[in-house]
Amino acid sequence: MNRPFSPIQILNALKIILPKIGVTFGVVLGTVICGLLLAILIVRQKFSRHRFWNIFADIYIHILRCTPSIVLLFIVFYGIPKFMLVLFGVNINFWPKMIFVIMALTLLYSAQLAEIIRSALAAVGPGQYEAGIASGLSPFMTMVRIVIPQAFVIAIPNLGNSLIALLKEGSLAYTIGLIDMMGSGNLIISRNYGAYALETYIALAIIYWGLTLLIENLFKFLEKQFSRGRRTVNAA
Q1: pTM > 0.85
Q2: Model pLDDT for residues 16-39, shown as the tens digit of each residue
Q3: Is 43:118 a contact under the CB 8 Å cutoff?
Q4: Rounded distance, CA 191 to CA 32, Å?
Q5: What's the Rg (C-alpha) of the chain?
């Protein structure tokens, strides 16, 4: 028998799903940290003088950007444990599912982030780096004090968009059994034998919509704050 639409079930679903927001944040935070470290390494190879590492970085970025996130998640979740068991005799099937989700999303996010960082650094232009060296700064300090701050301002909008995309991609974690917000929502539907599915998904949409707005406004604030000095210099 079809049940009528029940707005109260949206509130009930929100009460059950919201406590799992910590799991979702854990996946996003772990992916951002690991993805950033890996992306920096990939970008370093993109600017390497060795042709081999340039090609390797290009292939890595191309393959990962062209692989659907859910396919990559299944490859990591089912493939890496088998790989570790066959080659090294190590059983990692008991590892928490969150680790596999972070591993998969890190590969995906690092490829996107590497392109954002590369394009931002390229947009600064070599003249800024050369000016820093000419003024007596070391190559490292030139990057830290001159190039990277400018590149960060350029990259802020794309960083925000990539973080929002990561938040939404992380919702696929329920497909391997991780009980995050999406997983909790699907448990609600299963316990009700398929009833109140619409209300549950509306509750999930409200949460993801709210988080997206929060991220958008945060990055708009960051862009406004970090662009002040740049606008002043350009105006002068």
Answers
A1: yes
A2: 999 999 999 999 999 999 999 999
A3: yes
A4: 33
A5: 22
